[in-house]
Design a protein that fits this description.
This protein has 109 residues and is an alpha+beta fold. The protein contains two helices and four strands; from the N terminus they run βαβββα. Helix 1 runs parallel beside helix 2.
Length: 109
Amino acid sequence: MRIAVHNYHADLAEALRSYVERRLKFALDRFGGRVDEVTVRICGDGPEANNCRISTEVSPLGRIAVEDNDPDLFVAIDRATGRLGRLFGSELKRARDARVGRESVRLVA
């Protein structure tokens, strides 16, 4: 999993980068090789405009993106990574159920 962090107008660049990487690994490691590249955009223009947007390309599903705003930038990162992990899991389950739910053309005697 490759992680690209883009930091716009936010202080603590290196601390944010390591925090984002740790939270993403916690949220997405269970999905293994299905996650190729994750792009994170952090924008901290002030206490009311802290924004974290995460997007990723998922091999069978396409692009998944989440976004969160909070006065505390670390809370916005926590919420966005948590939501991404849950969304990723539910989308994979939906795709797996659709594939498994098909009836077989073979008749079982």
